[in-house]
Amino acid sequence: MAEGNNKTTRRDFLELSAAALTGMAFTAKSAASPPATLQTTTPTSTSGGIDLVNLTIVEASERIRRKQLSPVELTQAVLHRIEALNPKLGAFITVASTEAMEAARTAEREIQQGRYKGPLHGIPVGVKDTHYTKGIRTTAASNILKDFIPDFDCTNVERLKNAGAILVGKMNLPEFSFGGNTPGCHNPWDLSRNSGGSSGGSGSALGGCLILGATGGDTSGSIRNPASTNGCVGLKPTFGVVSRYGVVPISWTLDHLGPMAKTVEDTAILLNALAGYDPRDGFSARVPAQDYRRQLRRNIRGRRVGYIAEGEIAQFHPNTKKAFFDAVKVYEGLGARVQEITFPDRMRATGGAHGLIRIAEAATYHREFLRTKADQYKTADSNVRTTVEAGSLLTAAQYLRCQRARRLFLEDMAKVFAPLDVLLTPTMPAPADVAVDVPETYRNWWNLCGYPAISLTCGFSTNPAGLPIGLQVAAKPFEDSTTLAAAFAYESATDWHTRHPNL
Asked: What is the pLDDT of residues 308-355, one digit of tens each?
């Protein structure tokens, strides 16, 4: 499934990752206008007997294109569901209902005038509340930024708007994206459980059908974790494929931004809008533009699909292991050449470099906040202050040794992938809020190496009952279309993605 026109060599990619040694400063801009608030909307949720909020992007966009569905009607239905369910889910920090309805009316006029922009035109989406949004507050769920209103849109919001998408609000997260759980944000499959993190608001809203698409951020698995936990799809693209300009960072060399949606095809549609070189992001990759949606339907037969050996995940939850190996059988049934994979011992040692790189780079961004606003960090449900203070104590020599270990890790990962087209692992070691003691989750490894990885639902737990389980599909650098195509093949052969929670 490798791309024939992909001219990026492994050496190029290694050099791209090595370039991480030169971190870039990020300065927050400020403005002073009031935050957007949720307004009461017309309680419209169906059209012609169709439940609008359960539509996928593919389904809604086709109705909009044929002028069988109004962007205004769809946006009203979404805002009404947000108003009804967000108090239970806590998925949104800010709901921009006024701006959303204005954008929906504009989209409707454009489409009526024959200026249809494509499959995101008139589609309601949310963005993680680390994404700068002009005139709408961007808090990163922190008291430090609680009144920060940017005067420009980040690249991702700009590109979504250019594609005609309707921004309905900003999604919840742990403070500054630090953590695998999102305080106050609940799992739509069981409201007593957390939505995961750090893109927990995006995952909760998608799982609960409050929006049709979203963005997330992934530094240690923070798109794939909530995708798995909430029963949706989340893609961490190859490092550099999606711009990080205008987004509150954790780590300049580990951060990835990417799309989240209800299905793999919806995710590909979002990636088409988000991907592309951005000169304002110093790590943005100069790679040819692709139509990820067009490449989804490639045959999986004969493709080399590796799967992590049972011994590597021996301590994962039994339901997770069963769902995972059942998924491997699906690929085998589709004609893929499946093979068991184990990781070299050295990868376990060098993989630990991720944690130190992460906190050292985070401390660089937070240095001014520590100096002037240290007392404003949250103290409950947050470890940001202690983490960045620890990161500030690391020496340059320690940081550089971690980057050298990272290069060894990249070399080992390239050897693992040499005989493969894609590699399968469980996304999470257990369903939501189920504690398991595992030495490695194999999630932040993909941030360290920068390879693309996607999570999609591959089953539901029986103990506890009814919680989604995620399958992770990864591919080689800049073969994001391969990742998506392999995920789409599995999704097309199963029906897990058609299930919805009872809210």
From this structure: 999 999 999 999 999 999 999 999 999 999 999 999 999 999 999 999
Contact 393, 331 (CB under 8 A): no
Whether residue 298 is found in the same domain as residue 429: yes
- Model confidence over 258-268: pLDDT tens digits? 999 999 999 99
Whole-angstrom Cα distance, residue 146 to residue 30? 11
Q: Kindly name the residue from 17, 70, 177, 198 that is annotated as catalytic.
A: 198
CA dist., res. 128 & res. 92, Å (int): 9
Question: 220 catalytic, yes or no?
Answer: no
Verify cis geometry, omega within 30 degrees of 0, for the bond prior to 198.
yes
What's the pLDDT score for residue 237? 98
CB atoms within 10 A of CB 502: 6
321 given a catalytic annotation: no
User: Residue 185: in which H helix or E strand, if any?
Assistant: none
Catalytic residue among 61, 70, 97, 128: 128
Alpha-carbon gap, residue 461 to 322, rounded angstroms: 9
Q: Are 363 and 252 spatial neighbours (Cβ–Cβ below 8 Å)?
A: no
Show the tokens assigned to 256: 């990835």
Instruction: Find the angle CA(381)-CA(387)-CA(389) to the nearest 5 degrees.
Output: 125
Residue with the larger pLDDT of the pair 110 and 49: 110
d(CA 129, CA 122): 21
Q: How far apart are CA 276 and CA 295, in angstroms?
A: 17
| Residue 213: band (very low, low, confident or very high) from pLDDT cuts 50, 70, 90 | very high
Whether 286 contacts 277, CB under 8 Å: yes
Model pTM?
0.91
Which tokens in the block code for residue 70?
């109004």
Range of the domain at 150: 32-352+399-498
CB of 353 within 8 A of CB of 406?
A: yes
Number of domains in the chain: 2
**Catalytic residue status for 198:** yes
Q: What is the pLDDT of residues 442-481, one digit of tens each?
A: 999 999 999 999 999 999 999 999 999 999 999 999 999 9
Identify the domain boundary among 344, 376, 398.
398
Among 222, 243, 251, 382, the active-site one is: 222
49, exposed or middle or buried, with CB in 10 Å at 0-12, 13-18, 19+?
exposed
Strand bridging mode 92-95 / 166-171: antiparallel
Mutual angle of helices 353-372 and 384-392, in 10-degree steps: 100
- Looking at 181-263, list the stretches that DSSP marks H as alpha helix, in order from N- to C-terminal side: 200-207, 224-230
Taking only the tens place, the pLDDT of each residue in 391-424 is: 999 999 999 999 999 999 999 999 999 999 999 9
Whether 299 and 199 map to the same domain: the answer is yes
